[in-house]
Amino acid sequence: MKRIKLIIFLATILLAVSCSGKKNTIEKAERIETQEVQQQKYEIKELSFTILDTITHDQTLFTQGFIFHNGFLYEGTGLEGQSKLVKIDPKNGKILKTKNLKKEYFGEGITIFDNKIFQLTWHNQTCIVYDLKTFKELNEIKYYGECWGLTNNDSLFILSDGTAYLRFINPEDFSILYSKLITYKDKSLTQINELELVGNKIYANIWGSDIIVVIDIESGNVIEQIDISSLRDIVKEDSYSPEVANGIAYDPEEDVFYVTGKNWSKIFKIKIK
To answer: Which helix (H) or strand (E) holds 13?
Structure first.
């Protein structure tokens, strides 16, 4: 998730993938806490996808949060001194509006709620609240600890923080109401990053991996996964330094997803099947 940690982790990923053949799964990337587990109770379905369109993406953006809302894409980015909030035209990738964060802030996930944009910060323990239309800063909400990804169910915020738990929190003051343990084949799953809630499923990037996991929100189990490493292979052709996939935005009208990654030159419009 963070550039310094990423250098160390990528070495682990490369070793795991090189020893495991073509299939880039969470297990082979060793992103699961090591615990004693019971006999596997279910299979995780491997989903595929079709690319419907490719859209230009500013590859200087270190993608942390990604949302489709009322015909536009909104993106929150990270790194101190480079963090931004941007509004994007999904037809051509043109940036329509930009808001720079304070230089000391490392931006993280975003969500849209009550006509406002909420943007997390990594270890600044601050959520910045903006007017959706103007990007005017309205408020800052303080909280304790790290925050990575953010989505909402029209009532509560759902937050990832790098642990194996998703936190369900009050949007007003970020108080934690309850937590849900996330498991992958009966093992707790850590490094859950960017989030997108679709119905009763959460689509989540796993930091250090090009896998999207699909989590059943009721049980906390990963029930499906999508390997999008082939998309990073495409952006490697014209991106100067593409890092891992991070960014999942869902358009309910077309039933399609927009996905991208940190410093990727492209956004991909895909149909998951």
So the answer is: helix 3-18
Supply angle C-alpha 151, 153, 159, rounded to 5. 35
| Residue carrying structure tokens 């499906």 | 224
pLDDT at 79: 87
Using an 8 Å Cβ cutoff, are 118 and 96 in contact? no
Which string of DSSP letters, residue by residue, matches 64-132? Answer: EEEEEETTEEEEEE-STTT-EEEEE-TTT--EEEEEEPPTT--EEEEEEETTEEEEEESSS-EEEEEET
pLDDT band of 204, cuts 50, 70, 90: very high
Q: How far apart are CA 84 and CA 124, in angstroms?
A: 15
Model confidence pLDDT, tens digit, residues 122-144: 888 899 999 999 999 999 999 88
SS3 236: coil
The pLDDT value recorded for residue 81 is 87
How big is the CA angle at 97 (ends 95 and 98), to the nearest 5 degrees?
95
Name the amino acid, one letter, at 212: I
Determine how β-strand 176-181 pairs with β-strand 126-131: unpaired
Domains of the chain (ranges, CATH numbers): 3-272 (2.40.128.630)
pLDDT band at 241 (very low <50, low <70, confident <90, very high): confident
CA-nearest of 98, 121, 97 to 109 is 121
> Does the pLDDT value for residue 69 go beyond 70?
yes
Q: What is the largest CA-CA distance in the chain?
A: 53
pTM listed for this prediction:
0.84
